[in-house]
Amino acid sequence: MRQYKRTFGYLTMAAIAAVLAGCIVSGTFVISEVIQGDEFSTGNNFYYHAVDLRDNETWQDHEDDIESIDVIGFEMWIHNFSASATTFNVWIDDINDDSLTSIGDVEEYATQIIDGLEIKPGANFVTYGKSLSVLTNTKTLKALMLAGRFHYYGKSSVGGPNADYDIDSIRVIVTLSASSS
C-alpha cells in the first residue's frame, strides 16, 4: 500500500509540474451562451438569429486549441399563451452562406436539428436533458459549432412570429475538449 501511495504521489507531482510549466493544458470546457427572446429577428413566418460564440470569453480562451465539440444542448424558457400545444422546428446553416429569407428555402437548404418539439400551454422550461433527446443531425451541428458561428432558423406550428407565445431566452450549452502543448 505504501508503494502505491508513493507511486501515485510521484505521478501527481509530475502532472502538476507539467501543467505549471505550461507543457500541458487540456480539459473539457463548457460554453454557455444566452440568446434573449428579443434578439431573434422575425418575419416571413419564422425566427432568425446569427449565433456567434466567438465573443464568449471561454471560447476565446480555447478557440485555437479546440480538439472536438463533445456535446451540444440548450435550455429554453417559453410561455405558450394559447389553449393548445404548439410545436417548434429548428434549422441551422453555415453563417458564411447568405441567410435564407423564406421558410421554403430554410426547409430546403438548411439542416433541421429539431423536429416537432412540443410546447404545452402555460410556462415551459425545456431542460438541457430534454434538449439532448430532441436534437438531430448533431454531426452537422457540431461541425458548424466548431467554427463558432451559424444561422439559426425557428418556426412554430401556430402562426409564426405573431403566435400567442413568448420566448424569454434560450441558453446554448456547448461542451468541448481542448488542449495545447
Helix fraction by DSSP (H/I, runs of at least 4): 25-40%
Average pLDDT confidence is 78
Q: From the 3D coordinates, which CATH architecture would you assign?
A: Sandwich
For the biggest β-sheet, the strand order reads 2-3-8-5-6
Provide the succession of SSEs: HEEEHEEHEEHHEE
Question: Stretches where pLDDT falls below 50 for ≥5 residues?
Answer: 17-25
| Strand element count | 9
Number of domains: 1
- Quickly give the structural class: alpha+beta
What CATH first level would be assigned? Answer: Mainly Beta
What is the C-alpha radius of gyration, as a whole number of Å? 21 Å
Backbone shape: globular
The first-to-last residue Cα distance is: 34 Å
Q: What is the fold-level CATH name, i.e. the topology?
A: Jelly Rolls
- What share of residues are in beta strands? over 45%
Helix count equals 5
Instruction: Please summarize the sheet with the most strands.
Output: 5 strands, antiparallel
